[in-house]
């Protein structure tokens, strides 16, 4: 029989295919009688035992490998034993090459799918993945970002803290909770923490209070999108107030037609929408006024430098009518309360935002689709160690440039973490879950 197994020390003697599973029976090639691993005396034969192991699939079918293993006995030690076969992972009841193949794929596909392909139990796949994750946790290290984004993500049943490298658009780390108790030890133990020069977050105070004591050179920029979103919220408040004065039919019409019209930026309005906006102007002047305040607030961020931006904000605040638009007034107070950190936007070397992190919300959908069986830890590992996304943007270590021997060893690369746009592409294509 042709040796389609290609495993050292065994020889296939039978092959059957039934109900979508290939069963290969193999026998152990015996040479001379081995010595007892305990005392060194010669062993003698003591029957057989057939044990089944999963092997790598063939012809797209799971392979069940039944190995007829000789048992031995040592008279001196009074022990019966089976000799190790180096290609077997006894704990997983699988060949090592199958375990390797699963490790290669388990963070990029579903455990259920791998279980179906290999004939192993979902739990075995999960255990192999857990071992891999523990190893990755100890061995993979991403370069500490010079420009760091800190944001939140509602993932696998809770708000997680996601830390990104904004210069390379990659995920740096993910923390289980965005509480100070979780974040402080992370920043305290962060290698090269003096390297962080800029941090971009929203206005959630625990972020600043957590990294503040540990990142001595970091300056905060409050994320632009979290700031301007408040202007949109203030406009929404005025739209709802207007709707409340209408009857049901009119109300629905306003909600459907005016909501997106007024939330969009004017530059992205179609000619028809621009006409519709003119009608809103003449028909609902109060809403139009709120719209103009929203737009003027967004306009602050179009200013070319810090001084002009501060002036634009001052002018905006000074024209707010005293008795109206309470949410715009609240926004003005928020800007004053975070003044330095908001206007630091114009001091940073590039226009920093966490816009890409927001794109990771797509991962949330993937996580939900994957459904039960995926803990936060596994989703975190699938995100943080996704192989295809990790390759993008990694660089050879200094002195190991193009002239050196090509290697795939991760140690020889400076890694920045998985590239967010690539992660998003993978999750959209369904390749991540
Ligand atoms: Zn012995």
Characteristics of this structure?
five-stranded mixed beta sheet; binds zinc ion; Nucleotidyltransferase, domain 5; 14 strands; 433 residues; alpha+beta
- What is the helical fraction, as a range of percent? 40-55%
**Globular, elongated, flat, extended or rod-shaped: what is the shape?**
elongated
**What proportion of the residues form beta strands (DSSP E)?**
15-25%
CATH topology assignment of the largest domain: Nucleotidyltransferase, domain 5
How many individual domains? 3
What about the largest sheet?
5 strands, mixed
The CATH C-level name of the largest domain is: Alpha Beta
CATH level-4 homologous superfamily of the largest domain:
Ribonuclease H-like superfamily/Ribonuclease H
Number of strands: 14
Distance separating the two termini: 40 Å
- Which spans have pLDDT < 50 for at least 5 consecutive residues? 400-407
What structural class do you assign from the helix and strand content? alpha+beta
Short description:
The protein is of the alpha+beta class and 433 residues long.
Description:
With about 425 residues, this protein is α+β, with helices and mostly antiparallel strands. The protein has 3 domains: about 10-135, no CATH class; about 145-220 and about 355-395 and about 410-430, Ribonuclease H-like superfamily/Ribonuclease H (Nucleotidyltransferase, domain 5, 2-Layer Sandwich), CATH 3.30.420; about 225-345, no CATH class. It contains 17 helices and 14 strands. The strands form 4 sheets. Strands 1, 2, 3, 4 and 5 form a 5-stranded mixed beta sheet that branches. Strand 3 and strand 4 (about 60-75) form a beta hairpin. The longest helix is centred in the middle third of the chain and has 21 residues, at about 225-245. It is elongated, with a radius of gyration of 31 Å. It starts with 9 loop residues before the first strand and ends in a 5-residue tail after the last helix. Zinc ion binds next to loops. Zinc ion (ZN) binds near residues 41, 74 and 76.
